[in-house]
Write a structure and sequence with these properties.
535 residues, alpha/beta, Metallo-beta-lactamase, Chain A, 3 domains, six-stranded mixed beta sheet, binds zinc ion
């Protein structure tokens, strides 16, 4: 069996691991490469993926650095299946369209500039049509329902505790009578994260592919982080200014709303301080969170049962339209603005930073990982000014970096998760981390557990040996995946409601789209009639 590292090797973005066994070719994740120009060039040089030959992808979660190149694969001839969990599929449907929209906008903007220089137009990396080409390829599998994409390969998704629907992937491969167990950590969540369950534990593997984003750092505890957020709020409130929070649209935004809900309960959020969630994507993602209560943690489910909704606040405004978004900056006085992108490189957050970075008394609160080369990283590294929309904006606002909200396990939490493995001779490949963080983590793993810990580089290829020197693992003879009945019922009900609620909106869509929808509904109607007649 062979593995090739097509991304997130000695860096944190572009997750993709291509596997080959017994004439089959498939991959784990298909993330976009983000960072400097050299890294982003990899998004265009995709021949190394061989998209047309890949049979299927297993997608660990909806973050773009794990999924953002799926439309590019479709554009390049990928026609296979994409296995993932139900919430990840729903999140991907909005995130890939958003990503495609960003690509189209960027190409349009660059083309205008090129035309002025008498150069050729620039094509987008992929379009919304390419993104829509991904959707029919999804096959959803809930957690703990092992399935067999081809005879000799069994796959099981477990809760990674990272974002809604995120998975750890357990994989058993049979080759020449031997069985080998691989585990891909995807992104491992931080235990005690709001809303999401703690990461599931795994006890054995021959090869583990372990994320190492925070391989050299621990997080502050949750209470300190909440206190710091409260500090930022009272600092800006007292100065009559705004708190700007760049946050990923999925998970972090919802976690910030939840945190503000907790502060509000404790009387630490002024009642007259409006809170804006200014990201259409975050607004749609919040709706998906509400659709999957079974994927939330006990505490959140208990609140929902009591009729409380931690994703609601009396002073919370969702600003969907551009006009509403712009209006936030015409209003003076204190407010909290949560907007994307999380690394302040794209999206509406750039407008809010341009309006507030230079204002003394304002607060910029970073609550997520900031990759090298991004605007967010420059600000937390102490830049006195940053370039936004071709303008140098001075940094006078107070900058807070609250890493206790991370959706990634910190160093000690990664080691704790790893301590549950009891496989002698397990090899731990460190992936998804910056090289210095990986070196430190590798040293600790070797000292504490004695596991060999290679740190593969981009495009490196390795053979994973079967049998002999490795302890034999059993190929699990589990039954075929059973239907997740509760999910099926909730899914049908959710979709019917969605159609009913959005009827007005649907009627205002272009005629071609309405015709497409009518055809789909008729097809659905035919299938339903067949199913009903056999019940
Ligand atoms: Zn992630």
């Amino acid at each position: 069996m062979k593995i090739k590292f097509l991304g997130a090797a000695r860096t944190v973005t572009g997750s993709c691991y291509l596997l080959e066994t017994g004439g089959h070719k498939f991959a784990i994740d298909c993330g976009m490469h983000q960072g400097n120009a050299e890294i982003e060039k990899r998004n265009w040089d995709v021949d190394v993926y061989g998209a047309g030959d890949i049979e299927f992808f297993l997608v660990t979660h909806a973050h773009i650095d794990h999924s953002g190149l799926l439309p590019k694969m479709v554009q390049n001839g990928f026609k296979g299946r994409i296995y993932t969990t139900p919430p990840t599929r729903d999140l991907l449907q909005i995130m890939l369209l958003d990503s495609a929209h960003i690509q189209e906008m960027e190409a349009q903007w660059k083309s205008k500039k090129r035309l002025r220089h008498g150069e050729k137009l620039m094509k987008p990396l992929y379009t919304q049509k390419d993104a829509m080409g991904v959707f029919p390829l999804f096959d959803v599998m809930p957690y703990e329902h092992a399935f067999e994409p081809f005879p000799g390969l069994k796959v099981n998704f477990k809760d990674a505790g990272h974002i809604l629907g995120a998975s750890l992937v357990e994989m058993w491969v049979k080759e020449n009578g031997c069985c080998l167990k691989l585990v891909f950590s995807g992104d491992i969540g931080r235990p005690a994260q709001l809303m999401i369950q703690d990461p599931a534990m795994i006890g054995d593997a021959d090869y583990l592919f372990l994320e190492s984003t925070y391989g050299n750092r621990n997080h502050k505890n949750e209470e300190d982080s909440l206190n710091e957020l409260a500090d930022a709020i009272s600092y800006s409130y007292d100065h009559g200014e705004k708190v700007i929070i760049p946050a990923f649209a999925v998970e972090r935004t919802q976690e910030m709303i939840y945190s503000l809900y907790l502060l509000d309960k404790e009387g630490r959020l002024p009642k007259d301080m409006p809170v804006y969630v200014d990201s259409p994507l975050a607004i749609q993602a919040t709706e998906i969170f509400k659709r999957y209560p079974d994927y939330l943690d006990k505490e959140t489910r208990a609140l929902l049962k009591k009729g409380e909704n931690p994703l609601c606040l009396p002073q919370l405004h969702f600003t969907l339209s551009t006009q509403e978004s712009m209006a936030i900056n015409t209003v003076t006085g204190p407010a909290v603005v949560i907007s994307a992108s999380g690394m302040a490189d794209a999206g509406r957050i750039k407008h809010h930073l341009r309006h507030n970075l230079w204002r003394e008394g304002a607060a910029i609160v970073f609550v997520g990982f900031q990759a090298q080369g991004t605007t967010g990283r420059k600000i937390i590294d102490g830049a006195t000014s940053v370039r936004i929309f071709n303008e140098d904006v001075v940094v006078k606002a107070k900058v807070y970096t609250i890493n206790g909200f991370s959706a990634h396990a910190g160093q000690s939490q990664i080691l704790e998760w790893l301590s549950h493995f009891h496989s002698e001779g397990m090899k731990v490949f460190l992936i998804h981390g910056e090289y210095t963080a990986q070196q430190e983590l590798a040293k600790l793993i070797k000292e504490r557990f004695g596991f060999e810990t290679p740190i593969p580089d981009y495009l490196e290829e390795t053979t994973l040996k079967m049998g002999q020197e490795l302890k034999r693992v059993e190929y699990p003879e589990q039954a075929a995946p059973r239907i997740d009945w509760d999910y099926l019922m909730a899914d049908i009900e959710g979709r019917i409601n969605q159609l009913r609620e959005r009827q007005g909106q649907i009627q205002s869509r272009p005629w071609v789209e309405q015709t497409d929808l009518r055809d789909k509904l008729l097809e659905l109607n035919r299938s339903m009639t067949t199913i009903i007649s056999e019940l």
